Amino acid sequence: MSGSFFAEHSESYLQIEMASSSYGRMEAEKFNGTNFELWKLKMEDMLEDHDLWEVTSSATRLETIAQADWDIKDHKAKGLIRLCLIDAVLLNVLDERTTNSFCERLAAMY
After folding, report:
1. Nearest alpha carbon to residue 106 among 9, 8, 91, 75
2. Alpha-carbon torsion 52, 56, 57, 62, what sign?
3. Cα 2 to chain center, whole Å?
4. For residues 26 and 40, is the Cβ–Cβ distance under 8 A?
5. Does residue 99 contact residue 55 with C-beta atoms inside 8 Å?
6. What is the pLDDT of residues 57-99, one digit of tens each?
7. Where would I find the beta strands (DSSP E) of 10-110?
C-alpha cells in the first residue's frame, strides 16, 4: 500500500507507520498549545514525506497540479494535521476550509 499510513494515537502522542516513507516510522507529539515552532517543523517533515507540503504553504493551487489532485492533497494534509492536535487546539480551527488557512490560523494563534 504505497503512500498509505496507519495511525495509533493516544491523548498526547501519535505514531505513524508509512509503507513508502523515506523515514520509516515517524513519531510526533500532538500539539498542545506550547512549542509551536518545533511542532511545525516536525509537521513539515511529515507532510513533505507524504508530498503534501505545498498545500500548506500556498493559498492557491500550483499550476503544475490538477485541481482534483490538489483537492485530494489538501484533504489528506488537513486530516494528518488534525490527528496531530489535541482536541482543545483542534476546536479552535475546525471552521477552516483549506489546509493553508488552517495552518495560517494555527500560526496566528500560537
Report:
1. 91
2. positive
3. 18
4. no
5. yes
6. 888 888 899 999 999 999 999 999 999 999 999 999 999 999 9
7. 13-18, 25-29
